[in-house]
Amino acid sequence: MTQNFRPIPSELKSGLIEVASNIWTIEAKDYVHYRPPMQPRYPYTHRSVVIRLNDNSLLILSPIQLTPDIRTEINALGVVKYLVSPNHLHHLYMGDWQQAYPKAKLYASPRLVPKRKDLTFDKTLSTDTFEPEWIDQIEQCVFGSGNGWFDEIVFFHCESHTVVFTDMIMDFEPTIFSPISRMTTRWNQMYKNTPFGVQLAHTFDRVSLRDSLKTVRTWKPKHLIVAHSPWLCLDEEEQVANFLDSAFNWLEPQPFIVEAIMTATRFSMLLFIVLPIHALIVLIADLIYPRLMGQGGSK
Ligand SMILES: [Fe+2]
Q1: pTM to 2 decimals?
Q2: How would you classify the pairing of strands 231-235 and 223-225?
Q3: How far, in Å, is the centroid of ligand 1 from the Cα of 36?
Q4: How far apart are the CA of 265 and the centre of ligand 1, in A?
Q5: Is the pLDDT of residue 296 over 60?
Q6: Whether the Cβ atoms of residue 173 and residue 45 lie closer than 8 Å to each other
Q7: 114, exposed or middle or buried, with CB in 10 Å at 0-12, 13-18, 19+?
Q8: CB of 222 within 8 A of CB of 214?
Q9: What is the pLDDT of residue 105?
Q10: Are β-strands 162-164 and 223-225 bridged in parallel, bridged antiparallel, or unpaired?
Q11: What is the pLDDT of residues 9-42, one digit of tens each?
Q12: Domain 5-254: which CATH class?
C-alpha cells in the first residue's frame, strides 16, 4: 500500500506547522549531530511537537532550539506550561526553554534525571499513569525495556487523534549522508522502522513492548508524527495502522522455540558481530576518513 506522507512546506517563517486542531510541529532548521552507540555520527533532522490544552496552556514535547521567531509564534498560541522529554536523548534545549519560560514545569523521561543534574525536574514520567493536568486530553504509554538502555514515552493527543513517537520509529533522508553512513543507517534499519539498536535493547522485553503497541492501537490514531523524518506526518487511520504494522514487524510473536533462538541470535549478533564491526566503522568514519579528506575531525 502506498504511504501518503504529508510533506513539509518549503517556506516556513519560524518552523511551526499546524498538523491538526491544537497540535503543531516545530521543524528545526539545523541538524543535530549525534552518534548512536558504536555508529558514525549522523546529522539528524528533528522536530518538537506543541499541544495546546483546554486551558490554553502549551505542552512542548522534545523542545528544539528556541529562536526569536519560534518564541514569537509560540507566545501567540498560548502559555508554555509543560516541557517534556519523551526519552533520555531529547533533552538538549530543555534548559534554554526553562530560562525563557521559568514558570513551565519540566517533566523528565526515565533515565533523564541522573543525566541532567543541572536541571530541576518537577516529575519523572515513568509510568502509564495519566497526568491529572492533561487527563482526557493526552494519553501516554511507556515503551520500556526495564533494562536501563532505552525507554520512551509515546503520547496521544485525543482531540486530533495524533500519536507522537520520538526515537522508537525513525525515518532518515539518505541523501544527506556520506556513503558510509548510508550503509550503516540501512544496516541499522533507520528507515521507517525501529532502529536495530533499539530492537536489540529490547531483546528480553518484547512482551512488554507488544502490550505497549496494543495500547497505541486502541487509540486508533489518525495522524502519526515521529521526531526524525523528511516528512511532516502520516494521515488517515488505515495508513497509520499499516505503517505501525510495518515498523513494528520485528515484534511479531513467534512460537516459543523460534523466539528463544531469535533472542539468542540477536544477543550473539550484538556481542560478536554488530559491536566489533561498528567499532571499526566508527574508527574509519570519524577518525580516519575526515583526516584523509582534510576535514579535521568530527563535529
Ligand atoms: Fe532522537
Answers
A1: 0.88
A2: antiparallel
A3: 10
A4: 27
A5: no
A6: yes
A7: exposed
A8: no
A9: 95
A10: parallel
A11: 988 777 899 999 999 999 998 888 888 877 778 8
A12: alpha beta
Q: Which helix (H) or strand (E) holds 155?
A: strand 151-157
Identify the top-confidence range among 106-120, 130-144, 157-171: 157-171
What is the rounded CA–CA span in Å between residue 267 and residue 265?
A: 5
Centroid of ligand 1 to alpha carbon of 111 (angstroms): 15
| Per-residue model confidence (pLDDT) at position 256 | 78
Q: Rounded to whole angstroms, how far apart are CA atoms 248 and 135?
A: 27
pLDDT at 298 over 50: no
| Residues, CB-to-ion distance under 5 Å, ligand 1 | 167, 227
Nearest to 220 by CA among 196, 235, 206, 240: 240
Q: What are the boundaries of each domain within the chain?
A: 5-254
207 pLDDT exceeds 50? Answer: yes
Contact criterion met (CB below 8 Å) for 86 and 166: yes
Amino acid identity at 25 = T
Q: Report the separation in Å between the CA atom of 47 and the middle of ligand 1, taken as the mean of its atom positions.
A: 9
